[in-house]
């Protein structure tokens, strides 16, 4: 599962939020949400890792220029797009978005945005993985800019205090931040993102990592391009097990483990670890809020015909 979940993120909630609404396409493209669901279901039936991929895509899109599908744009000879920046280089799932867009365009041309497709596809994948079922307000428009220079996503060794500031700049509270990082319940990270924590690199055990996990990861990372599940137990299920693991010092990435150790976040970790229902409700609420970050609505942006390229200007 090729998800290196470094998920980061806003400031004042724009007034544009009011323009997103449930059932936005009820009259203009009645089958839009069912088409998304069908494509995601088909992919999920053969690839359970698509949930992690879509969660990462959704996060990384929203926290650069807002949830405007700018991450989907391919580079041109003149501009290197967001998807080719270092933090985004391993994002995947673009082909699924293409499949959804093609199916919807055949039914409702130039009606449903790529930004809405990302949000809806993520919702459906989360539900298929045993996570909460939630409703997504739609009406987003697609952005007109995608530049790798705009991408500034913190890495896995960032302190909790700095990470909190990144989230706060997008209007996300500390509790919501801890909730959203629970998406790591279905994520993986390649060894390069946590090898500095391993005894094979440090020369001695990391006191914040369970020795048995250290030994397991040291062995795993002997293979080239190896990756580890961020939730070592229920790796394909969206649940609260991630929090239970980091309370046992079984967090793979440093930032994950620090959530359980830092005083500003540890209480939320404990609460989610002990109450799966609370996590599910909180996750649904937080991801809906995240999906509204700096959205384009009304006459802003465009509705792309192809999610990978901007529409041609007349």
From TrEMBL:
Locations listed in the record: Secreted
Entry annotation: catalytic residues: 60 (proton acceptor)
Enzyme Commission code: 1.11.1.7
Main location: secreted
InterPro entries: Haem_peroxidase, Haem_peroxidase_sf, Peroxidase_pln, Peroxidases_AS, Peroxidases_heam-ligand_BS, Secretory_peroxidase
Keyword entries, A-Z: Calcium, Disulfide bond, Heme, Hydrogen peroxide, Iron, Metal-binding, Oxidoreductase, Peroxidase, Secreted, Signal
Binding site for Ca(2+) 1: 61, 64, 66, 68, 70, 82
GO molecular function: heme binding; lactoperoxidase activity; metal ion binding
Names of required cofactors: heme b; Ca(2+)
Database matches in Pfam families: peroxidase
Record-annotated Plant heme peroxidase family profile domain positions: 19-311
Chain residues that bind heme b: 184
GO cellular component assignments: extracellular region
Top-level taxon in the UniProt lineage: Eukaryota
Residues annotated for Ca(2+) 2 binding in this entry: 185, 231, 234, 239
Free-text comment on the cofactor: Binds 1 heme b (iron(II)-protoporphyrin IX) group per subunit.
GO biological process: hydrogen peroxide catabolic process; response to oxidative stress
Residue numbers marked as site, Transition state stabilizer: 56
Keyword Signal: yes
Primary role: Removal of H(2)O(2), oxidation of toxic reductants, biosynthesis and degradation of lignin, suberization, auxin catabolism, response to environmental stresses such as wounding, pathogen attack and oxidative stress. These functions might be dependent on each isozyme/isoform in each plant tissue.
PANTHER family found in the cross-reference section: PEROXIDASE, PTHR31517
Protein name (Swiss-Prot/TrEMBL): Peroxidase
Species lineage: Eukaryota, Viridiplantae, Streptophyta, Embryophyta, Tracheophyta
């Amino acid at each position: 599962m090729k998800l290196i979940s470094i998920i980061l993120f806003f400031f004042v909630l724009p007034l544009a939020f009011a323009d997103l609404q449930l059932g936005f396409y009820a009259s203009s493209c009645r089958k839009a949400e069912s088409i998304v669901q069908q494509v995601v279901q088909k992919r999920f039936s053969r690839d359970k890792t698509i949930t992690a991929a879509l969660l990462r895509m959704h996060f990384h899109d929203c926290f650069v220029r807002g949830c405007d599908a700018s991450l989907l744009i391919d580079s041109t000879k003149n501009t290197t797009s967001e998807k080719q920046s270092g933090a985004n280089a391993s994002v995947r799932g673009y082909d699924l978005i293409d499949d959804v867009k093609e199916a919807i365009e055949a039914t409702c041309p130039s009606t449903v945005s790529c930004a809405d497709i990302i949000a809806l596809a993520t919702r459906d994948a989360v539900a298929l993985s045993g996570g909460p079922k939630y409703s997504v307000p739609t009406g987003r428009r697609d952005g007109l800019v995608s530049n790798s220079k705009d991408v500034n996503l913190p890495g896995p060794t960032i302190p909790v205090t700095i990470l909190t500031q990144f989230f706060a700049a997008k209007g996300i509270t500390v509790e919501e931040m801890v909730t959203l990082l629970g998406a790591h319940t279905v994520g993986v990270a390649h060894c390069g993102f946590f090898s500095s924590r391993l005894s094979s690199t440090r020369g001695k055990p990391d006191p914040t990592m369970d020795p048995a996990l250290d030994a397991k990861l040291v062995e795993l990372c002997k293979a080239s391009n190896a990756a580890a599940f961020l939730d070592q137990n229920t790796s394909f299920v969206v649940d609260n097990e991630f929090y239970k693991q980091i309370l046992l010092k079984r967090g793979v990435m440093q930032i994950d483990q620090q959530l359980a150790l830092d005083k500003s976040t540890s209480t939320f970790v404990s609460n989610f670890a002990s109450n799966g229902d609370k996590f599910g409700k909180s996750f649904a609420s937080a991801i809906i809020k995240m999906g509204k970050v700096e959205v384009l609505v009304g006459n802003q942006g465009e509705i792309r015909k192809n999610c990978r390229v901007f529409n041609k200007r007349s």
